[in-house]
Amino acid sequence: QVQLAESGGGSVQAGDSLRISCVGSGLSFSSNAMAWFRQPPGKEREFVAIISWYGQYTYYSESVKGRFTVSRDNAENTVYLQMDSLKPEDTAAYYCAGGRFSAKVAGTAAGDLDMYEYWGQGTQVTVSS
Fold first, then answer.
1. Is 37 within 8 Å of 114 (Cβ atoms)?
2. Ranges under pLDDT 50 in the chain
3. For residues 27, 29, 32 and 34, what is the CA-based torsion angle, rounded to 10 degrees?
4. What is the sign, positive or negative, of the torsion defined by CA atoms of 59, 60, 66, 68?
5. Distance of alpha carbon 124 from its chain centroid, rounded?
6. What SS3 class is residue 14?
7. CA atoms within 13 A on the CB side of 38
8. For 30-65, how does the pLDDT look when each residue is reduced to its tens digit (9 = 90+)?
9. In sequence order, what E strands does the chain have?
10. Among 35, 9, 8, 58, which residue's Cα sits nearest to residue 118?
11. Could you tell me which of 27, 32, 42, 74 has the fewest CB atoms within 10 Å of its CB?
């Protein structure tokens, strides 16, 4: 049974940093492009970032580019999202997702939720001003 488990969310002040993690089990972790999505209150789930199988390629949404960094440790079956200079508009439930495709080949299609076979349950990040 495949499981993705996020952790590390919490409540912070604007300008603070936070790192969230996602540990995978039951899947060939290094065969999956891993992504982060978020869902603000009352809004649809949106793409945040993706990292390729071995971490050579990353792609970010414009809203987080330059502030967030995605990384992975395949030996630990873990993907991370380092979030710096947090803003109140970053408040959302953050989800990790895995898909067996090439992140570089997918390009902007990586933002399509249907590309992903595996999803975590989410971790809440709240940023206050």
1. no
2. none
3. 110
4. negative
5. 12
6. coil
7. 22
8. 999 999 999 999 999 999 999 999 999 999 999 999
9. 3-7, 10-13, 18-25, 33-39, 46-51, 58-60, 68-73, 78-83, 92-99, 118-119, 123-128
10. 35
11. 42
